[in-house]
Amino acid sequence: MKLRADQTGNRGLPMPLWLQGGLEAGQAAILSAIVVVLPLVGVWATDGFQNRNVDALARLAGQAWLLIHGVPLHLAQVNLGTAAQPGSGMLSLIPLGLTLIPFLLAWRAGRRLARASYTDQLWQAFLGASMVYAAFGTATGFVCRTPDVVINLWLAMTIPLISFGLGMVLGARREAGSWSRLIGVDAVAWLAKTSQHSRWAGSYVGSALKAGFVATMAAVSLAALLLAVDIVWHWTDIIAVYEGLKAGALGGAVLTIAQLGFLPNLVIFTLAWSSGAGFSLGVGSTVGPLGSAVGPLPAVPIFGALPAGQLDLGGMALALPVVAGILAGWWFLREGENHFDEWLSIKIKARWFTAAASTLFLGAFIGVVAGALSGALAWIARGSAGIGRLTEIGPNPLWTAVWVAAEVGIGVVIGYAVGPWLERSQKLREANLDEPALDDEHA
Q1: Contact in structure between 176 and 120 (CB atoms under 8 Å)
Q2: What is the number of structural domains in the chain?
Q3: Which strand (E) or helix (H) includes residue 96?
Q4: DSSP per-residue codes, 137-190
Q5: Which of 102, 151, 215, 424 has the most crowded Cβ, counting Cβ within 10 A?
Q6: pLDDT of 332 over the 80 cut
């Protein structure tokens, strides 16, 4: 991006990178705010809010913008139904689906800034963008705080930078093509200076970490598929809740958008449910594969898909993380090298022991990585609605990590053990398919 001196098309002075970063951050902040404001304006225009003042609508939009960035809102007075009940609570349940909006805008900004910068100058653009985005969050928190909704200005300044900064870094990495080009460090040259044993250990650890990521993504994908099947199975119950609300076309559309915003949270809830850890929808409630016990819930249509009572086949869901582990074990066999098994075979001659020990260690390693990632996802997806019993919503991160780690570890051992047989079967099928063509050629 260049500053032009006139309208002739001749380029003038180059735009400073910090200024270009600030402009990109401002665009991302404004566009994400517009996306939040539009549904609220629709509800406001149809008399959906008791307070018809424009400034109240603007403050509500600002509070929603902060919430999708992960900033907790302290509710000093909660409105339940038609009566405002005094009390306090923390609204910290983040709609991760809506958080993707500023993340993707930051990803776009990171790519544009990477194209406009040299490797050793990219920090200038990132610094300008971070300062502008932090200022936008601080100003939003200052303007939108009320006696009923208390906003910590320090959190409003820093927490939005997490999703925005992550999006910019990943976008710049996508444009640069590699981390070495992005940060200006030649990783290959650095690794060449290390010893052979260090390179083997690093290769093993790197492949195991990637396999743990593969297991986590496979488990999340299977959980998303299970959630889709559950929604289709309970579709009539969900429609019945919609009809009972009588929210109208616009109100139903806004309600649907809000539920789509929490769809990634529900996928992670389903992952915890399928692992056996379960999740809660209020203090004292449990939703697990073997049974559910929940109290009164708000009239939200998606809650119609909750499994109720004892589930005869719910235990079968425990196989999903195991299947994800099998895929990760097979992936490691195809893409990685088990240098730990090689080292152990040199030290101990009993092959039956070294093969079993290295496989069990690999399963434990990958299981711990998948469990840690799943626990982090559970921690991000859970939160508090700040209303009555709904101060505990979501899975327990620790128990989710433990259950997923154990089940993925079992799956990795199975997948790594049966992987060679699967590979041989695939090669035999390919050979059988090639035989007729060879016969025809000789004929």
Answers
A1: no
A2: 2
A3: helix 96-116
A4: HHHHHHHH--SSEE--HHHHHHTHHHHHHHHHHHHHHHHHSSHHHHHT--HHHH
A5: 215
A6: yes
- Does pLDDT of 6 surpass 50? no
- Do 239 and 363 sit in the same domain of this protein? yes
313 plus 357 within the same structural domain: yes
Last residue of a domain, one of 151, 183, 215: 183
Residues 72 and 31 in one domain: yes
**The total number of residues written for the chain in this structure:** 443
108 and 228 share one domain: no
> Do 285 and 218 belong to one domain?
yes
Structural domain span for residue 97: 16-183
Q: What whole-number distance in Å separates Cα of residue 282 and Cα of residue 400?
A: 17
The sign of the CA dihedral 43, 48, 53, 56 is: negative
The predicted-structure confidence for 384-435, as pLDDT tens digits, reads as follows: 988 778 888 999 999 999 999 999 999 999 999 887 776 666 656 665 665 6
Q: Is residue 252 part of a domain?
A: yes
Residue type for position 170: L
CB atoms within 10 A of CB 312: 8
The percent of residues above 90 in pLDDT, for the chain, comes to 42
For residues 394 and 299, membership in a common domain is answered with yes
9-23, 53-67, 247-261, 307-321 — which is least confidently predicted?
A: 9-23
Look at residue 287 in the predicted model and tell me its pLDDT. 86
Q: Which pLDDT band, with edges at 50, 70 and 90, does 441 fall under?
A: very low
Same domain for 281 and 204: yes
Q: Are residues 203 and 178 both part of a single domain?
A: no
134-151 residue pLDDT tens:
999 999 999 999 888 899
Amino acid at 90: M
Whether 4 is covered by a domain: the verdict is no
Answer yes or no: are the C-beta atoms of 133 and 25 closer than 8 Å.
Answer: yes
